[in-house]
Amino acid sequence: MIQLGKRYTLRVSELSDMGAYVDAGNLGKVLLPRRHLPASLTVGAEISVFLYLDSDDRLIATTRIPLAMVGEFAFLTVVDVNNAGAFLDWGLEKDLLVPYPEQHKPMKVGQSCLVYLYVDRVHGRIVASSKIDKFLDDDRPHRFRAGQAVSLTIANSTDLGYKAIINHSHWGLLHKSDVNQRLSFGQSLRGYIKHVRPDGKIDLSLQSRDDRLDKNAETIMRYLRQQDGFAPLHDKSDPKLIEQTLGMSKAAFKKCIGRLYKDGLIDLSADGIRIL
């Protein structure tokens, strides 16, 4: 079913002086204004469009790509405030409304805010809310698995690291020890599921498991060369010693030396590891 606030590839059903009409299925024929028409567009051709309401609340199509769609979080800038609420620039001609009841804190012109886009059931309009917690249902089952690539939106910082929104649906945590770059509020980037805890909470990483293993392997091999090929570190070593020496957790160390051993690069003994 075709929905308001989404992007679709639709068939052109009619051309007129006003523009082109695309077949939006359950939503009927929708006008794509002439200013958005490619010169070579013909009846029967398919075109990628975004569906939204214009300033007169008429359903309309555009070839412009918004900064966010319904069901997504985005970091957007306030361009106006009036009696209706705050208005955000989301890349389209008509600005996006954040009603006053949906503002976590009063918004000001020039401020950038993390918001969620949805269709208001009362008026049928696309609006946004900065009360993001109510759109993240961590009690809802998920199918995230370790190693899975996901999209992340940085939403907050804590003593442990950074809280991020995973695939516009659930909370996850990037631990400080897994972050080696500067992150900013509202930033969107690619990440990976590092671990799903028994309670359902999710730990994240900015590197895939293979990337982390490769990076840790380089660290271990470089350290061994610096130490004439031997290091008194093994699976019984104090986790703090491993962290201080190699900058990685004991779990990551054990996983990595297991891989290096299988690849025939190191030998494992009761007193440490040695380059072969």
TrEMBL record:
Write down a Pfam family by its short name: WHD_CvfB
- Per the database record, which ranges form the S1 motif domain? 3-64, 69-131, 145-207
Q: Which SMART domains match?
A: S1
Q: Coiled-coil regions in this chain?
A: none
A GO molecular-function descriptor? nucleic acid binding
Report the superkingdom from the record.
Bacteria
Which family does the record assign?
Belongs to the CvfB family.
**Name listed for the protein in its UniProt record:** GntR family transcriptional regulator
Native organism is: Pseudohongiella spirulinae
